[in-house]
Design a protein that fits this description.
This protein is mainly beta. It has one domain. β4 and β5 form a beta hairpin. The longest helix is centred in the middle third of the chain and has 4 residues. The radius of gyration is 17 Å and the shape is globular.
């Protein structure tokens, strides 16, 4: 959970999420990273990872000039070609500064540990959404 301090001695929740892959799912890490955005706002990345092979998730919030927060939709997932989303097993990592990112891109015969390809994306922040500008798929450097 992420809190804001709207005034002295006051705390207000502004983001929360629950990611579980069963009874024993435990968060391994929660990493916050901010980047300047248009109009004097700040884009906040919230990366959360679980133990084991659950992978990571990433959410985005925008801190507006008036100290309010806006949840940023990741519409770029819906803009990927049909079938792509099912080949991303363990989340993506988007750099909030450049809005470029990567994800393991699994083939039918790939082991859970080792995707044979990498999906690279370039995004843009439009209004309250991250939208897809371009994408590419290449062989994984580990293969």
């Amino acid at each position: 959970m992420l809190f804001d301090t709207p005034g002295p001695g006051k705390v207000r929740p502004i983001w929360h999420d629950r990611f579980a892959t069963g009874e024993d799912a435990v968060w391994r890490s929660l990493t916050l990273e901010g980047a300047p955005a248009r109009g004097g706002t700040t884009l906040l990345s919230v990366m959360y990872c679980v133990n084991g092979t659950g992978g990571c998730g990433q959410e985005f919030l925008r801190r507006n000039r008036n100290r309010t927060w806006t949840w940023i939709r990741q519409t770029w997932f819906d803009q990927l070609p049909q079938g792509f989303l099912g080949r991303i097993r363990h989340g993506t990592r988007i750099d909030p500064h450049s809005l470029r990112g990567e994800a393991g891109f699994y083939g039918d015969g790939d082991a859970n540990c080792c995707p044979s390809r990498v999906l690279s994306v370039e995004l843009a922040l439009r209004g309250d959404s991250l939208v897809l500008i371009r994408h590419s798929v290449a062989a994984s450097p580990e293969k």
